[in-house]
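Our preliminary data section would be incomplete without showing what the modeling component actually yields. Below, a chain of 448 amino acids is followed by its predicted structure, encoded as tokens that our downstream tools consume directly.
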Amino acid sequence: MSEGVKTIFFSGINGIGMSGLAKIMVTKGYNVYGSDIAEKPVSKQLRDMGVGMFIGQEAKNLEGKNIDLFIYSSAIKENNPEYKYAVNNNIKKIKRGELLALLMNDSKGIAVAGTHGKTTTSSMLGITMLEKDPCIVVGGIIPEIGSNSKVGNSEYFIAEADESDNSFLYLTPSYSIVTNVEADHLENHGSYENIKKSFEEFIDKTSDIVVLNKDCHEIKKLNLKNKNIIWYSINDESADIYAANIEYKNRESHYEVVKNGESLGKFRLSIPGEHNISNSLGVIYLAHEFLCDMDKVKEYLYNFRGANRRYQILYDKSIKIIDDYAHHPTEITATINAAKKIETGKITVVFQPHRYSRTNFFLNEFAESLKLADEVYLLPIYSAEEENIYNISSEKLAELIGGNTRVYSEEEISDRVLNDNSSENVYLFMGAGSISRIANTIKNKLPL
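Predicted structure:
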């Protein structure tokens, strides 16, 4: 951090990335203030830690506080009154990703990137390396630490690296894991070619070891200059580390891990899906490289229930309610297929499309992935403050899915779930907007 910085203001502090960094900075002894447009559960956590919180974003939030550094999220635009105040008063301002880089780049940084799976993978890595006392900043709440961040007292710094706005290019990690590369956030990148170039740059900036998913064909097509590449796979035994003898039993995944021809033994996961076996392999490789106790690593992975909103079971009695962050067709496909392997009841997906741009770009792919469910309830598109310049709607998606699929209001979905008297039916709530609030509201109305 720059010398002389004592007081920091976070504009958009309730965001999962911003709140994690705010917690780190207040724990490090900085005076921290922040604002957001609405109250969220994390707001109370931040207040309890000593953060000066403001609900609503106004210039007066910064007045008289001697702010040395203004941190802003990608949601904050140049016409934001707090941003304008910082400009007009010559307050140094940096993006969230730049602050993360300032913290990580002076450490033995381990960054986890990828279009899908980076929150789960970085969370897995964080808990398996707890014995090393790392600093952790991820994009979800990790139940084992009760937070999305942790201040550590070692040289290790584990972070989720965000490609959505290219902020991961501020990072120069010592180690990195890349789970996959796919088209997404095209509203920011412009084209898939640009996304691939960004990942190439990120990988080539990793100084020591970069661990890549050999099962992702798009990664193998990248033009990479980095020679320190380790490959992991659940399908290819020529990889440096791979999973063998995969079995699914008693709602668990069982598999052997082989690294450089040597068996590291049997591993078990309680969270479902081949994609999570895959996510674990890069974690296991680095944990072994860092000389972590492998018996503890196995225990941590088995007890890992996922970061919040990653196949998070909210209710499991007569019916089951699951909350999941999946908001891209590939993620939806993986999550539904994982559910089919372990759930016995009818699977109804309650999906809220996120952003008009993403829904428009992947309309056909969304339809195909959602067809895997037994039934689909759609909510209107969550705009995330985008304008609908595409003339896209959930009704168009419903038409492509076919059958009895249609768009429901929150109240209609609540009534259908609450009045379901069938046994073992599974309601899988998916999306990145307000869908989690809807799922939790319904859960709170069900009998204990």
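The two ends are 48 Å apart (CA to CA). The chain has a mean pLDDT of 95. Preliminary results of this kind motivate Aim 1 of the renewal.
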